[in-house]
Amino acid sequence: MNKPAPRSSSAKGEKLAQRLSDILALLHQGGSIDKHELARRFGVDVRTIERDFSERLRDIAKRSPTGHWQLAHHRRSTIPAQYLNNYAQLTGTEHLFPDPSLPYLLEQLETPVTQRATHVQSPSHENLDHQNITFALLQNAIEQRYECRFVYKDKPRLAQPYRLIHKNGVWYLAAEEGDRLKNFSVALIETLQVDESNHFTTNPAHHDYINGKDDVWFTTKTTEVLLRVAPEVAHYFTRRPLLPQQQYRTDDDGSLLVTTHINHPQQLLPVVRYWLPYVRIIKPIELHQSVVKSLQQALAMWEIQ
Asked: Using alpha carbons only, what angle is made at residue 52 by residues 51 and 57, rounded to the nearest 5 degrees?
């Protein structure tokens, strides 16, 4: 009777090498790894996974306070791959590419610049190099809930900072001053003093309001505006929102009936002027009249004598 052939030691070695390689890849993606999940994934006993970490990867992985395993701190010479997604969310670029997956982003980064098929032309941003200390102090004040004193537009201010917001290339500080939530351009803040002896209690309503806004105009007064957009430029309003809380309906002639809610006329009027004569304010009529008046004044100023 023939005995079964012994299992090849080289096959065992290849299986071990593949398992360790996969574990290393998971570790470098960041986060914590559960040994039970790994055991199920690789079809081995939990004790085998424990031996992988305690013996074969003992200088690479360490046990976290929760009992999971993660990359040892001194081995983190590169940024974990998952941080790419976190960074994209932080900068608001997670929907920049049609494919937001991590493999796609890694593929783009690994492709030499001269060979990339894509090129992103980023919008212009203000330079805050001269305000880097102010920015860091404000960030710490927000995290620690410290009150701040500063001069803004030649006026002394006492404010409770809530959030640093980047909008259209400009950084703003959302802060409460005199029971009102306001925005301040960081570039215009002068002589900042953070009072580390005075903590304040945040207002949850302010956080909800900021999180629900897509702009930096802070006021409880909201005006609903109705616009008619001609078919010639309808595409530009449907491919991405150009106005706050924009909604639209496409009519049979290809034009759009656009609804927006604004806190200040300057959220609306520059967009309307840019797309003239293809955009008209239907209501409130006062805003339409304001546009017409400003055009008449401009024509009067430009009229050749």
From this structure: 120
